[in-house]
Amino acid sequence: MEWEEPAIILRLSPHGDSSLLVRVLTRQRGVYHALVRGGQSRRQSALWQEGSLIMARWKARLPEQLGYMTAELVRPTASFLLDHPLALSLLGCACSLCSEALAEREPQEVLFASLAHFMGVVSVSAPQPPVALYLRWELLLLEQLGYGLTLDQCAVTGVREGLVYVSPRTGRAVSEEGAGEWKDRLLPLPSCLLNDEEEGTPADWLAGARLSGHFLQRAVFAACHRPLPAARDRLMTTLYRLAGEGASGQEAEERV
């Protein structure tokens, strides 16, 4: 049995002296594991990088076997981001979440297309990476896993405007009026998660990451008794730092 289709490299691990175990997200077949013979060699090292878009070829005698994979490089996304830590962190976080949250061999065409789109955007805007686009992708991941949030109207009043909070229990949006005295118990909902044209500020990114992270942990990873991936923790550390720097800069400007 064999197939060929576009794939995104999610994770690599050494196998023996020269081979690799690779985990990829394919367009029509979902997540696949495979063995890459000679993947650690100097000749192949540029091809097999996490976050790269490839044309993958998988072959095995039986469908349930691990199988072998070869590939042609389509876009070496990570190589465009080496001088831009935030962009590289976003890419690594997306790959880690897909690798650990998605079941094997279940079609994920919508998620593949959205991740490929994000990779294309971040490749050409690495100095100012699309953080809000990435956070909206995390919400899509939750939706595709069956845990989508309801962000189109207030859970209390039913209004569709002025949604500024999300219930940490139900995942439903709440307006300022609907929140009332309970606002301190709700998660802030930055507008950049609702508007595809808005990028937001570092403070918005941090609030958005805390929102999506809460539900990723609660709905996806807690069920498997696992924490969020280390790459997600590193991204949060970066966002906390950026939000702190932004607040310090604003305070200095106000003092002037």
Automatic annotation (TrEMBL):
Gene3D superfamilies: Nucleic acid-binding proteins (2.40.50.140), Recombination protein O, C-terminal domain (1.20.1440.120). GO terms for biological process: DNA recombination; double-strand break repair. Keywords: DNA damage, DNA recombination, DNA repair. The keyword ATP-binding does not apply. It comes from the Bacteria. Residues 1-75 form the DNA replication/recombination mediator RecO N-terminal domain. InterPro entries: ARFGAP/RecO, DNA_rep/recomb_RecO_N, NA-bd_OB-fold, RecO, RecO_C. GO terms for cellular component: bacterial nucleoid. Belongs to the RecO family. PANTHER family: DNA REPAIR PROTEIN RECO (PTHR33991). Involved in DNA repair and RecF pathway recombination. This is DNA repair protein RecO. It comes from Bombella intestini. The gene is recO.
